[in-house]
Amino acid sequence: MAVDLNGISVFLAVAEARSFRAAADHLGVTRPAVSQTIRRLEDRLGVALVQRTTRSVSLTEAGERLYQRVAPAIAEVSLALDATADRDAAPSGLLRLAVSSIAERFIAGPLLASFTEAHPAVQIDVNVTDEEFDIVAEGYDAGVRLGEVIEQDMIAVPVSGEQRQTVVAAPSYLSRYGRPTHPSELVRHRCIGWRPAPRSAPYRWEFSENGREFDVAVNPEITTNDMWLMVRTACAGAGITFGMEETFRPYLESGQLVPLLQEYCPPFAGFYLYFPSRRNLAPKLRALIDHVRRHR
């Protein structure tokens, strides 16, 4: 069957806009032209792709399957064409990034500030999130996460050096409740936990002893998805908490927090900027990759 690229383009516009009128405006054609193109495509395939009422437009099950398979392929074609046409163009446009809330080195400010100063035509939209999802399906250009959780089919560029998670508490807490000498004792302490999303379980605290990795399921008296609330509450003496050493560093240096159980907290691979494995990168993303490499 010959590929009807025009019909596919119109179908994708309708699927993404969920509106014949909005799709027509986006494509610069009339609404009847969009309707006729969709009808011809449906007749050719012998299956309904779009459900239409006077109030809404939605995809049928067949339409949803077609969209999920065709949209990434068309995006790849568009990216290749853009890269061919704009290889020597100055980086510009919107760069969408999904960044872990604990990627302190990336979101601290200097890296992004120096990038936007060097590339004023690029606008950056950063979504700080710890939810796991497909950055391609969600329309992001790249993401920043710990290397150990990045999918194998992604290209990854180091953003930081080795990282370490650590246990901390305020001196005022330790003076009242004492200092644990082994991770197993944490279950008897007041703890402040972190969860990436409201429906997620609190993060399990991970340790290593004599080359053996294990975790401790503490029972937090306070749990939050806000890293800074967790830090401030720990500084106030509410309990022991656990997180990235880089996040705690200013408070450790000032003495507001004290490190605990360091011998059970070995270093591990740090954060990476990751993006789909594509030969042709948009100039804006290529510029960010080069900037990250220089900034390290």
Structural class by secondary-structure content: alpha/beta
Low-pLDDT windows of residues: none
Helix content class: 25-40%
What fold name goes in the CATH topology slot of the largest domain? Answer: D-Maltodextrin-Binding Protein, domain 2
Estimate the strand proportion: 15-25%
Please state how the strands of the largest beta sheet are arranged side by side: 4-3-5-14-6
How many H/I helical runs?
Answer: 10
Principal-axes shape call: elongated
The CATH class of the largest domain: Alpha Beta
Rg value: 25 Å
Number of domains: 3
Q: What is the N-to-C order of secondary-structure elements (H for helix, E for strand)? A: HHHEEHEHHEEEEHEEEEHEHEEH
Number of strands: 14
Head-to-tail CA distance between termini: 51 Å
In CATH, the architecture of the largest domain is 3-Layer(aba) Sandwich
